[in-house]
Amino acid sequence: MSRTISMMAAFAAFVAGTLLIVCAYRGEDTSPTVVQANSQEIAPRAEVNEPRAMAESDAPKPQNAPAPKPQSEPRKSESEAAKPPATEAPAAGSPEVIYDLNRLPDPIRETLQSIVVAAQSGKIDDMLPVLEENELPPMISATAVSDPIAFWKKASADGQGHDILAAMLNVFSSGFMRKGEGKEVMYIWPYFAEMDLTKLTPAQEVDFYRVVPPPQGIEMKKSGKYTYYRAGIGADGVWHYFLQ
């Protein structure tokens, strides 16, 4: 399967703010009110309304606004948080493992598209036009094969080549690597076909078992050598091989 990483929707960053509250006080200088009724005085109003001389120092002062709380760092967007760590640079002399199909030359992408479309049809005979359009017949066995379609049908579990097509799709959906220079450049699938299987990382182990059936994979890991299907396409788009 394609290891294209999907982009997730970004969250907006939230910044906490502080509400400043300023309390103001107002003093009233109110004189008592005397109301006469039936020739009797009504007692002065409550003490709060009695006139009182207030010294300037007695007047209520505005309270200081609370100091703003330190703002927390803005939250990272989800796309940044979910972004996988940068891939470590390969060791000196070790080929780079590539997952981005956009890095393939156009001729290779065209060939790869033709292969995938034919394989997804579920009909092994649909692979014949792809083979015929190739500059030369790709190797599908260590020995010469005159009829690739008949060969694949005979080698398949159901006689129809369905498991061969499935294996082809699994191989080409894995990561790959580029080897050689100039006219000798070759793009190879899967990338671990060129690696010591005893030194795979946990993530590479998962890639490995997505292509290789577990019973065969266990035996390969014991020897450290890859013996399942592998494929190679030149920089010019010529499909050179697909074989075990």
Number of helices: 7
Mean pLDDT: 75
* Unreliable residue runs: 1-57, 76-89
Instruction: Give the overall silhouette.
Output: globular
In spatial order, strands of the major sheet run: 3-4-5-6-7
Structural class: alpha+beta
Give the ordered list of helices and strands: EEHEHHHHEEHHEE
Radius of gyration: 40 Å
Helix content estimate: 25-40%
User: How would you characterize the largest beta sheet?
Assistant: 5 strands, antiparallel
Name the beta content range. 5-15%
Oligomeric form of this entry?
single chain
State the separation between the terminal residues, measured CA to CA: 20 Å
**Extended strand count:** 7
Quick summary of this structure?
With 244 residues, the protein is an alpha+beta fold. It is 26% helix and 10% strand.
Per-chain topology:
Elements (H helix, E strand, L loop, with lengths): L35 E2 L2 E2 L36 H4 L15 E2 L7 H15 L7 H6 L14 H8 L6 H11 L3 E4 L6 E4 L12 H10 L2 H10 L6 E5 L4 E5 L1
Antiparallel strand pairs: 1-2, 3-4, 4-5, 5-6, 6-7
Helix pairs in contact: 2-5
Supply the key terms.
244 residues; alpha+beta; five-stranded antiparallel sheet; 26% helix; globular; disordered N terminus
Task: Please tell me about this protein's structure.
The protein has 244 residues and is an alpha+beta fold. It contains seven helices and seven strands. The strands form two sheets. It has a five-stranded antiparallel sheet. Strands 1-2 form a two-stranded antiparallel ribbon. A hairpin with a 4-residue loop joins β6 and β7 (239-243). α2 runs antiparallel to α5. The two termini are 20 Å apart. Mean pLDDT is 75; it is low at 1-57 and 76-89.
